[in-house]
UniProtKB/TrEMBL annotation:
SUPFAM superfamilies: Bet v1-like (SSF55961). It comes from Microbacterium insulae. Gene3D superfamilies: 3.30.530.20. It comes from the Bacteria. This is SRPBCC domain-containing protein.
């Protein structure tokens, strides 16, 4: 992971994050100063950022919001103070409302980003300065250390092409914390087709099957927000096993890039998971990222022990083959 250290200093009133990258300083600078690239990592997993304003000049302003898996928006604003590209920039970081007005009851901090060359690429040193120990304590209590670490650890995937980042690696499962798992898979096909394949029953029945020997016997889907779905699978031929299914509800839908649904095993009292699907396209390939939120660590480990990743890889390989035939 890129982040090597995050420290807080109550005497200096600072929080400092350090990260190392296999990319030159100029590439790192571009990632932090190009809004469409910044959006891909600034929010922690499950809270992607959208920048609606970005004026990179002294006195200029940036506005953004992060959208939670359940659709809540958290707004922020930057005021750029000093810029010396590609080495450093400084900005005031404030909480804001949806109109961009600064919230006076939450701390404003001064962020200093320094980009340094290293023998293998570059180093980021991000020092955030606070006005008081109370402000520092409040921001840390809100999860700033964990959130900033997870956000910056996503930057590796931005600094290289999607194909370089993921092609040939198959389905990958990463543990983010005790209740969150991130699953990634590069699919060779355009984003619109990948989105359709996740939301049209006639396409879902062709690929969402897991290991060979199963068929989807029920596929009922209303992809609109508040809509319900129900999937069931049954063994075919000599395959052994019992029929099973999942049901849930669409919580958020932003076609063709993001869909959040609940998932519950039909006919059981198992708690539901929250599944946050994100799609990114580049050069004709789509990176699929699925963040799954489990109710607790025990449930997370139980599900992973079923061989979930292998089953998903079989489905995604089938999806890729289906898209190639379109």
């Amino acid at each position: 992971m890129p982040v090597t250290d995050v420290t807080t200093d109550p005497e200096a009133l600072t929080m400092t994050l350090t990260a190392e990258f296999d990319a030159p300083v100029e590439r790192l600078w571009d990632a932090f100063t190009t809004p469409r690239q910044l959006e891909r990592f600034w929010g922690p997993p499950g809270y992607p950022a959208t920048f609606t304003e970005f004026d990179l000049a002294p006195g200029g302003r940036a506005r953004y919001h992060m959208t939670s898996p359940r659709g809540e928006e958290y707004h922020g604003a930057w005021e750029f103070l000093e810029i010396d590209g590609p080495r450093t920039f400084t900005a005031l970081d404030s909480f804001a409302n949806e109109d961009g007005e600064i919230l006076a009851d939450l701390p404003t901090s001064r962020m200093v980003f320094v980009f340094e060359p290293t023998s293998r690429g570059s180093r980021l040193v991000n020092t955030t300065h606070f006005d008081s120990a109370d402000a520092l304590e409040k921001i840390v209590a809100m999860g700033a250390v964990e959130g900033s670490t997870m956000a910056i650890n996503q930057l590796d995937r931005v600094l290289v092409s999607l194909r370089e980042y993921a092609e040939g690696k198959g389905t990958r499962t990463e543990l983010l914390d005790d209740t969150h798992v991130r699953i990634t898979r590069l699919v060779d096909g355009p984003i619109d087709l990948v989105w359709r394949a996740h939301h049209e029953p006639e396409l879902l029945k062709k690929w969402l099957l897991g290991p060979d020997g199963w068929r989807m016997s029920v596929c009922e889907l209303d992809p609109t927000v508040g809509g319900r779905y129900r999937y069931e699978w049954e063994p075919v031929g000599e395959t052994e096993g019992e029929s099973f299914g999942f049901d849930g509800e669409t919580i958020l839908s932003e076609a063709p890039r993001r869909a959040v649904t609940t998932e519950h095993m039909t006919g059981t009292d198992y708690p539901s998971t929250l599944n946050d699907l994100n799609l990114e396209e580049e050069d004709g390939a789509t990176l699929l990222t699925l963040i799954v939120e489990y109710p607790d660590k025990q449930t997370r480990d139980m599900v992973l022990a079923t061989g979930m990743t292998d089953g998903m890889e079989a489905s995604y390989a089938r999806l890729e083959g289906m898209l190639a035939a379109v």
